[in-house]
Amino acid sequence: MNLATVHPLTGEPLHAPAEDEISGARTKLRSAGARQVRSMLKEREHLRAATRALRDAFPFDDDCAASEALDRFCRALTGYVALSQFGVFRRIAEGEERRASVQRVADAVYGDIVRSTHLLLKFDAAYRGRSPHRLGKILIRALRVVGRTLAARYALEDRLLAAIAASDKEDTPASLGAAAAR
Predict the structure, then answer these.
(1) Structural domain of residue 59, as residue ranges?
(2) What integer is the mean pLDDT of 13-33?
(3) Which candidate, 141, 29, 146, places its Cα nearest to that of 81?
(4) The whole model's pTM is what?
(5) Is 164 within a domain?
């Protein structure tokens, strides 16, 4: 038995995984990724609802209700950013993305997503737990920047999600078999 066919530590024979094992592993990864994407989009909807609640609290005359709305918005914001940045896009962040079509889009948009993450987390650190009534126009200006940042981020993320979805469709067992036959 040559060394390439045995495990270097245990000496057990190695075998190439069968196509159904590979396909099963890809299906599990795809399924986990799809769950993360669904969770991210659900968090995006929570963030939008928190944004509407904060907007409805304007002009922040009821400081208690406005503070609660601002804190809810900040929690939704950090939850969304964490799930997208460190969940759905983790492979890209760690340089592990192997799908060329996804990597091309990531190369174009991921830097802007990271920059938006920093800006959004900076907003959270500056305003969570603070009184919207006392902050007044400063908070309103900051919220306008956050709103524009989120709109741009959603568009960038959607481009990346579309590339991931298209790549998953291309990576079906039938297409893999066709590619192997070439």
Answers:
(1) 41-170
(2) 51
(3) 146
(4) 0.75
(5) yes
